[in-house]
């Protein structure tokens, strides 16, 4: 449950809003048809109704949630609406939940529109033993929404998946989410980091060995990780670091669906789905002879790309509060507020360590912020401040340079666009056909015609 770090009056906030007058029947029908989770909350801070999307998100029934008391906390402590409706965090009186969303005034009650939900009882974002569902992939920016949709589509398939992304972007989180959404979810998920195990041990770890296979081997032999993943999923992290000799053996295992433990005289049948991950350019490795092309195509049937955190600016604030909540709950500390200038600074920061770096920073901050106070700029580590300021200056310089280049090119681009539209209008007397030819909407075409003073059939 959240502990307020400063007083916050829900009724006072309610009085500051503007009510809408709509019929109850239309109101209920409207929110039931929304894909987004919605809670209807009275001025007494108790839930009056939840739509089906909200019930599904929280895995509860209507009876279990109606009448429950909830606590509201602004996502930041600047009490204004310059960015639209304020984002809020809510928590229930008897449920350990993290729900972030927006409050909207409707008559004498409030709608809480869910943007993100995480249950304390569900798996940890940093890859707990049970592994996360796709909801644990925190992020609502466009690349993350597209990635989640793609994962939902490909998870049931037995085809191999290759996840590309920088270190710290959460590749294993994605792999575990795919496994949890697949038909193999009740079977083992076995993860191995190919870069963390010495080359001379990697073969026996992957394929296992029989009794007496080599000096120092266990007297009882050992089951390899591939065999341990039978009927489940094998996750090969840092696949680019696998030695070429083992790449050949792995390729044979994929093609024949059987493995031969070290020292064994007979192969063992296996049924596994392989998910691999890399932060390296495997196409370049292939050109340099460091990675087998045939294995690459076997593993890269379904390619997924995880965006680095610097490409997910819209998710930074959400992730900040997610990790603050995660670490304060785990460490039994008071949940702090965050000053807006801190959030703005962290949005500009480049995050070379990606999600992992952000999580570590939030854990540091919840340990050093005085109880009951908010996180301000003075609490940020000096090395972060210096690198963040340097990155900000570099970005400003690059933006200025880019602006000059864009100004030089804009006239040429507009002239090119004008010519393309004029050609299409010359070929088609029907503006709808011309718009289809150009790949734009009819309304856009009319705006462009007005902008460039063009007319149908003009030469």
TrEMBL record:
What name does this protein carry?
Sigma-54-dependent transcriptional regulator YgeV
* Gene Ontology annotations of biological process type: regulation of DNA-templated transcription
**Signal peptide feature range:** none
- Primary gene name: zraR_3
Which residue intervals define the domain PAS in the entry?
23-69
Keyword Ribosomal protein attributed = no
Span of domain Sigma-54 factor interaction: 137-367
Q: Which SMART domains does the UniProt entry name for this protein?
A: AAA (SM00382), PAS (SM00091)
């Amino acid at each position: 449950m959240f502990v307020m770090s400063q007083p916050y009056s829900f009724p006072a906030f309610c009085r500051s809003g503007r009510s809408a007058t709509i019929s109850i029947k239309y109101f209920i029908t409207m929110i039931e048809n929304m894909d987004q989770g919605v809670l209807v909350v009275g001025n007494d801070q108790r839930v009056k109704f939840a739509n089906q999307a909200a019930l599904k998100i929280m895995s509860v029934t209507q009876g279990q949630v109606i009448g429950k008391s909830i606590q509201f906390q602004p996502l930041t402590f600047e009490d204004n609406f310059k960015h639209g409706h304020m984002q809020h965090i809510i928590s229930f009186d008897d449920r350990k939940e993290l729900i972030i969303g927006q409050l909207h005034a409707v008559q004498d009650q409030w709608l809480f529109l869910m943007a993100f939900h995480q249950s304390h009882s569900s798996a940890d974002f940093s890859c707990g033993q049970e592994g996360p569902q796709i909801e644990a992939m925190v992020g609502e920016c466009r690349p993350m929404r597209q990635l989640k949709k793609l994962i939902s589509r490909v998870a049931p398939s037995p085809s191999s998946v290759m996840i590309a992304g920088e270190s710290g972007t959460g590749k294993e989180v994605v792999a575990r989410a795919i496994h949890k959404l697949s038909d193999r979810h009740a079977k083992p998920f076995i993860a191995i980091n190919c870069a963390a195990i010495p080359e001379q041990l990697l073969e026996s770890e992957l394929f296992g060995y029989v009794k007496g296979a080599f000096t120092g081997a266990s007297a009882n032999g050992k089951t390899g990780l591939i065999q341990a993943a039978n009927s489940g999923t094998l996750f090969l992290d840092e696949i680019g670091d696998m030695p070429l000799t083992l790449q050949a053996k792995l390729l044979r295992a994929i093609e024949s669906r059987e493995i031969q433990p070290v020292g064994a005289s007979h192969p063992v049948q296996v049924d596994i789905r392989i998910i691999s991950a890399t932060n390296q350019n495997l196409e370049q490795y292939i050109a340099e002879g460091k990675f087998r092309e045939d294995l690459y195509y076997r593993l890269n049937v379904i390619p997924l790309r995880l965006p680095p955190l610097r490409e997910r600016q819209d998710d930074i604030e959400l992730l900040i509060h997610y990790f603050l909540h995660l670490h304060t709950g785990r460490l039994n500390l008071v949940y702090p507020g965050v000053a807006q200038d801190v959030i703005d600074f962290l949005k500009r920061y480049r995050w070379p360590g990606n999600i992992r770096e952000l999580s570590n920073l939030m854990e540091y901050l919840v340990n050093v912020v005085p109880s009951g106070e908010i996180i301000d700029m003075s609490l940020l580590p000096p090395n972060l401040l210096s690198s963040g300021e340097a990155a900000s200056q570099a970005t400003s310089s690059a933006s200025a340079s880019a602006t000059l280049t864009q100004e030089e090119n804009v006239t040429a681009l507009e002239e090119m666009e004008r010519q393309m539209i004029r050609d299409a209008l010359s070929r088609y007397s029907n503006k709808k056909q011309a718009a289809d030819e150009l790949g734009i909407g009819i309304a856009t075409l009319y705006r462009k015609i007005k902008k460039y003073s063009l007319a149908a059939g003009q030469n």
